[in-house]
Fold this protein.
Amino acid sequence: MTRKRSAKHREESKERNLEIHSLEELKNWCWDEEPIELLFGKVERAKREWEATADALPQLICLVDERGRILRANRTVETWNLGRVTAVRGLELHELLHPHCTHPACLLNRLLKHARIEAGKGQPAELALRDTVLNRHLLVRVQPVQVLENMAPSMVVVVQDVSDQKRAEESLKRHAQRLEAMTEIQSAILAARSPEEIAQAALIRIRQLVHFHHARVTLYKPESREFFVLAADANGDTHLRPGRSYPDSFFLGNRDRQPDKFFVIDDLATLSDPSIVERQLLNDGIRSYVSLPLSAEGDFIGSLSLGTITPSSFDNEQIKAVSEVGDLLAIATRQARLYHQLQRANTELEKALHSKDQMIQNVSHELRTPLSIIYGYTEVLLETSDQGPLTPKQARILQAMLQQGERLRFMVERILALQTFDAQHLQLQQIQLDRWLPAMVSRWESRASRPTRSAPIRFQVECSASPILADMGLLQQVMVNLLDNAQKFSPKGGTVRISARAEDDYAILAVFDQGIGIPPEKLSHIFERFYQVDGSATRRYGGMGIGLALCRTIVEAHGGRIWAESQGEGHGSTFYVLLPKASSQEESL
Ligand code: ADP
């Protein structure tokens, strides 16, 4: 019966859209539903559950009345040591957070008042501040609430401690700034050319990361046991001048304070045994001091030091930043030094090469006249009978002298040709390769003085190239040299093919032989002056390694290219000469 009535009541209330606003109404409505004590018990349990939930939250949560007085707060008041949760009722929020604060312009107080006015208008408010009294970053949210219809509106104030979050944000920001500064330092260091410029660039950029009143970069010179000051930066004068060297004894403190060690001095004034430099810095007003060794590939190369006028002013983060710059500085300095050493070595090498060239040229020049005289007289002896008839033996000796004399003359001429080659004075003329090349090869074959080998070597010429514009005399020297080599390195009865063909705007001349071949790794060297694949004293073939160098000089002076190909030792070689074709205008010359 009771159940039926209450079900009927509920139906009615639904129909009338009945809402329960007071305890009295609740009692009237469900007096026969459940015993009232049970009902109160349930309400109490719900209240406790909510309180426990609010207490478990890390934020400080307060219900505040329309006059700004706390009606209820969660247990965070106790965690934050602001008082007992049971004793805060009736306090103003500002009083709770800033007990005893009488500051007329207290920021928190002003912000809270403003938020209360906003909440009074039904508007939520949010404010963030760094609270110096609580020493926390706070985020305060104020939300107007209507607890009961016939009561004045209250506010729920949630105060969140965002200090950790702020700290993380700030550290992230600092990290980003440091990264940015490091990138800048890196590019500045890379753009600098000398160790001095590098050090200067580093000091300027370190200022973005660390505040200092003195900074210095030195380079250690082990040979004289001195420190050379690469750069110095001071707010005022500095006793250690850039560009000057100081003995290492100036820098030596106790065992732990050596330039090749990292050390931090919180206050120079407290040192009982300051080094000369430390004493001078103290005289200049420097108190905090940090010294970092610069090392590259394990070698100590110098040091970087910073100082400020306040004691204990370098924190770990700054020291880390400075040492990162120090690492960059060390690498760049080392590279700059190596670069300079290399440049010096290069200049010296160039000078040596120049003197060697000069000497070769002078010697060849000096050899030319006596050689011509010896050669000339030998010819006279052989050809004239003024001195009486020659015995067959004498004639053979003179013939041999003549042959060797010619060889010597040829070598001296080639050395001089290479040393004194002048690309500016080419006697260019149009050459019809298809006519010129076979004629030139046949002249060369029939040349009397050509060194002969016992077995005949066959020479075949195929020609299909267009005309080229070249210095005929020089082009002949190139071809003669290639033919001489082909013959020299070919086996008995071998064939040498000579060809010329057109390809795009070029003519390609080639000399193929079936000779001893060239190892692939030597192919790029054979055009160097005085290079021989077999340079040993017991080598089978004679020569000075000048011919191909001269060929390259001549071909390149014509705007062409020369190269060799070979499948390796014993597989023959091919030498290619690429020369630009004569343009149609030149063809009509
Ligand atoms: P060289 O006067 O000594 O012959 P070159 O400058 O003409 O000097 O040649 C340099 C070296 O290149 C030679 O000593 C030889 O080792 C190698 N070379 C040149 N032509 C040939 C070839 N046709 N076959 C094999 N090796 C060659």
User: Anything to note?
Assistant: The radius of gyration is 50 Å. The longest helix spans residues 316-383. Residues 481, 485-486, 489, 513, 515-516, 518, 526, 531-534, 543-549, 573 surround adenosine-5'-diphosphate (CB under 6 Å).
